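Curious: why this fold?
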Amino acid sequence: MRKIGLFILLLAAVTLSAKPPKTVNAARNSVASVLVFKGGELLRSGLGVFVGNEGEMLSSHSLFVDCDSAVTIDPRGIVRPVVKIFGADEMYDCIRVTVTPDKKLAPLAVATRSAAKGEQLFMVAYGAKKSGPIESTEVVKVDTVTGAHSYYTVSMPAREKYVSAPLLNANGELVALLQPVAGSDTARCHALSASFIKNLTIKAVSYNSNRFARIGIKKALPPTESEALSCLLLQSFSSDSTAYKSMLNEFMEQFPTSHQGYLYKAEYNVMKLHNYNGAIADWEKALTLTDKKGEVWYHRANTIYANKLYADSVAGIAYSIDSAMVYATKAVEANNEPVYVQLKGNLHYTMRDYAAAFECYSALSSTNLRSADNYVLAANCKEILGDSDAAILQLDSAISTFGRVPITTMAPYVLNRGLVKYRAARYREAVIDYNIYANLLSNKVNANFYYMREQAEYNGKMYRLALADIDMAIELAPENILFLLEKGRICYRVNMIDDAIPVLQKAIALAPDNADAYYILARCLVEKGNKSAAKQHLEKAVSLGHPNAADILKNL
């Protein structure tokens, strides 16, 4: 009898230990059924767990893939649409989303400590009217994932219907969510720490990643202002102005004291809406929110400048280049940042005050904005002012920014220097730069380049090289009238009349209304003594309006 009594006592003890605590029973209200849809059609369903007081829910990422909407249904039958994604991880198949919170939402507290090996946990499944099953399980193994969070192996069998079901400790705290079934071992299953999922956020680098692109539910902005600003900047380059406006409004709601939001809003008002008064109000508001007054003045000047160049050329006086200069000057006075000085240079350049523009660009040479492009702008100023030598020195500095080892990216700057030298009648020096340019590009140049170099060679009296280059141009573009005429002109100049005549005849065949072709051919025919044919071609040139043909015809 004593043995039977002892057995009954032991059985009762086991039964009591298997019964879940009241805190676990109460957690049934925190587990929701999740229905995801696409185009109004149900795609699939799964589980989610409410945590926190802001409507957050933790679930499986794969559950939401390809959907455009989703709803949650809690055990009381309350339906709540999923409104926003706050983070996701494809590798661990988890997601953090939100619903609009209400007083009947029953969120779970996330455990602050990890469960230990051998600890008893309780799996709580979804069921209408708190009918979801509760199963106890034991932690078999504890591994660590990113950020010192835990990844558990537990002793219960793996079942797809319980993916994302919560595992709770005896205090009713959420420890982990069950993971999808993987492999052939279904006797045990895995669970990911709830703290890992709870800490998921969206970062700027992942904002447009595939993990979110395949889900049609709105994404939240990153929680930090700097990350959110990066997202806003990227979205500003998109052609979807509606999406950008929505993100901008969200940013301003999330960071109401950020002056950056008002700067972006001002730019949107100007460039998209042409709401100039609205933009002025935004800039004035931004000034009250920051000590960085120079940044606000710079943004105002830069926005006006961009608007004048690309959008609205007839904006009011408050949006003139002169007004942009006023604000750019204020920016420099408030904080002498190189980028502010650069803007002043651009404004002076636009206003054709090239001496002042040069001073600004020149000042950048000792700052972190020292660049080949700024040296080119300084060179342009000097050339326009008639100082070609100073312009060439600026281009020398531009090329020096690339270092001593020749690289392909310096080629455009070498070419630019060659063009300046050509315009300064330093033809032979120009040819040297053209040669360097071609070498930097491994001689992968087009017909126009050969013609351009030929022009410098011809004017530099380098006739043999000029002939070689015009031949290359014609080889690449055999029906280009300009190239054929140039070949005829060079051959006439160096008394290669027999080479000039067929080229000019071809030019006339291709362009029978070209007065120059008749004129040059007539000069060649005169040299050959064929005055009768020369007269006919000169008469044709006169009829086509050639300015010199009539005088030659009289003398002939």
